[in-house]
Amino acid sequence: MAFKEVILVDELDNEIGVMEKQEAHLSPNLHRAFSIFIFNSKGEMLLQQRADEKYHSSGLWTNTCCSHPAPGEDIVESAKKRLNEEMGFTTNISEVFSFIYQAGLDNGLTEYEYDHVFIGEYDSVVNPDAAEVKAYSYKSLDEIEQEITQKPDLYTEWFKIAFPKLREIINR
């Protein structure tokens, strides 16, 4: 596995250094991340099920795409690039909010992220990378909320934190 660096930030999202991604998740150190939520024209959210080979949260359902911008990389361009790499399409996205969260994961890892949340709309072909994505599905927000309540173990920790925040903003 190639080493990838993440951008360490303070609680105001000011860059304070870089660290190898795995090390940042073991320490944990606050670092910059992004989460993308794509909707179709019916208002359904595109979810992905993480591939079984992922180093954490494998096989769990989550938002359309998420990752970390590389040092020196524009976060919007990084997010668009990663969306295409993981899900096989591009679309316009816009940032709707950001927040800090910390959540324990499997394999002794912890997410401690300053997460920039983007939304977009897409109604065409989805062609996910099988090394990243096991399956995908469009679901209504009500259906997702019900599943998170009834079967929380099916979803990633960060999704269970971000989804209600996003839903609150969408419902305003």
UniProtKB/TrEMBL annotation:
Task: Tell me which Pfam families the record gives.
Answer: NUDIX
For this protein, the record's Gene3D superfamilies field holds:
Nucleoside Triphosphate Pyrophosphohydrolase
Please indicate if the UniProt record lists Manganese as a keyword. Answer: yes
Q: Which GO terms describe its biological process?
A: dimethylallyl diphosphate biosynthetic process; isopentenyl diphosphate biosynthetic process
Q: What is its EC number?
A: 5.3.3.2
One Gene Ontology cellular component annotation held by this UniProt entry: cytoplasm
Q: Which UniProt keywords apply?
A: Cytoplasm, Isomerase, Isoprene biosynthesis, Magnesium, Manganese, Metal-binding
**What Gene Ontology terms describe what this protein does at the molecular function level?**
isopentenyl-diphosphate delta-isomerase activity; metal ion binding
Pathway-wise, it operates in:
Isoprenoid biosynthesis; dimethylallyl diphosphate biosynthesis; dimethylallyl diphosphate from isopentenyl diphosphate: step 1/1
What residues form the catalytic site here? C66, E113
Where does the Nudix hydrolase domain start and stop, copy by copy?
A: 29-161
Q: Which family does it belong to?
A: Belongs to the IPP isomerase type 1 family.
Protein name listed in UniProt: Isopentenyl-diphosphate delta-isomerase
